[in-house]
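Hi L.,

You mentioned the student needs an example of a multi-chain input paired with its predicted structure. This one should do, with 656 residues in total across all chains.
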Amino acid sequence: MKAITLREFGGPEMMQYSEVEMPVPGDGQILIKVINSSVNRPDVIQRQGNYPPPPGDSEILGLEVAGVVESMGANTSRFQTGDRVVALVGGGGYAQYALALQDHCMSIPQSVSFEQAACICETYITAYLNLFILGELQGKKSVLIHGGGGGVATAAIQLCKTLSPETEVIATASSNKLDRVRSQGADHVIDYREQNFADEIRQITAKRGVDIILDHIGAKYLEPNMKSLALAGTLMLIGVMGGIKAELNLATMMVKRQRIIGSVLRSRPIHEKAAIIDQFESSVMPLFASAKIEPLIDARFPLKDAAQAHELMERGGHFGKIILSNQD
Amino acid sequence: MKAITLREFGGPEMMQYSEVEMPVPGDGQILIKVINSSVNRPDVIQRQGNYPPPPGDSEILGLEVAGVVESMGANTSRFQTGDRVVALVGGGGYAQYALALQDHCMSIPQSVSFEQAACICETYITAYLNLFILGELQGKKSVLIHGGGGGVATAAIQLCKTLSPETEVIATASSNKLDRVRSQGADHVIDYREQNFADEIRQITAKRGVDIILDHIGAKYLEPNMKSLALAGTLMLIGVMGGIKAELNLATMMVKRQRIIGSVLRSRPIHEKAAIIDQFESSVMPLFASAKIEPLIDARFPLKDAAQAHELMERGGHFGKIILSNQD
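Structure written out for the whole complex:
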């Protein structure tokens, strides 16, 4: 089969469309003929050599695939050959065939295309896990979502407005994306380059602060994030793109009863991922089936041109998912 | 009535036994004739001028009282005059009479003395809230409790061994208290002055780390605490005796899915405190009634000698509660 492999870690030019061995499904696994996969920010970091796959997962890039069941390993009964499925995978998405644990797969509703399905697993499950399962978001709360134009952030805004319409959603974004972020459902947008977001949050919330922050920036935002949190608020930390180490004021955190929760999806134990996907399938998949939520797609590339897809992601001008296709 | 008042903030010599006005129970409040109250570390910090009571609470020191119901305000029906009660109060414990919200009171079981009852509210509720309600401790987990000789720590060790016997309890203490901490039920003790606790935790847990840390030290311990936490472990931060600001490694925290939860009891909204006390009364009070847990009492002083009680607490040589009494 064909897949994208890396000559070595580095820039997009290291990515090559190669012939590799077809994977064989093991215990509890199914082999998926990939129709579409998608590009996520962690793929870029993995390509650069800074985000190895969990032990046992494919070294090939790609965290989510949509396609049809090609064959099944031992102890698999949930799907049949030919079923349309979408899967969260620890790696291996940039290929014509990919292995997935059956418990990490979901059926694709009839009304959802493969392209749309390929947008669901990484970003929507990450947003759902962090805001709704771990963050316990519901009702009249307020949430701050950083980088509102990004994949997880867009998914987070859509999920908030659909699953918890009373929630006040504030998003930061760069000036050229503010309007589009607002059109996704954000009640307030903050231009993070031109405005001090902690000051804006203070004003928007009448000094109260927000209940939950979804942050992928890390160190650079730690202090203004903690300032922006309400009493008993939670900072969900899902990335460190703005640095690793920062000073924390523990007295304020204690008196205000605030929380910081570190969270990743990819390296969680497989049974935990299965439980998360199970909850997601019953709570969120029906929203795709009924088109209450529609994934935003920015661009499509044939799998062989995955390097161009990475160049687009690294330029950062996209809004919505970048899709790879095996059907060209 | 008599009460301990402060000439001004400062050392124990500022405490005086004075005549003050008797408080009058308001809506939802009861007036308790205090038989015993007890001394807690926050009382010392409040005496020094660094821990003001929540708005509306008495300026008089003292966070817990045991006694009998003297009279009742409007909208109170849970207790009757003469009932033996113990109460968590925002202030006012160092007095002959104290006000409490009826929802912050519990009946004292027949087999429990007023002295014992006066030991229950502040330390055991704090330990229960942070380990069992917020920390979700149960089953085969491991816990690190700092300052094992302190009031909250002793309560925490006892609660772990009684409510969750499978839990592995590790406590730090100074060398002269190690044996007594072990006798309270700690499976392992670490001499925090002579040993590097993070190294010891690594060895005791075979590199896994502990699931929960109960910490009142703060900044000085942040780095070794985070090193000592297992995957998905939680640092419960309930004090900052060792400093306020410290550097946090956000990348490690994210990848290891760790949590920091800031927590205080005193300034929580009164309805939250009522809910915590309600849960405590059904889950933990029966353990006192059946003597499965017995509060440790180190020393007793007449209320008028509260300054001596503070001197003892500040010297730090005590092990167990320091009780104040109105019956001498």
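You could point out the following to them. Chain B touches chain A at residues 218-219, 222, 237-240, 243-264, 267-268 (CB under 8 Å). Chain B has two domains: 2-120+266-325, 123-262.

Best wishes,
N.
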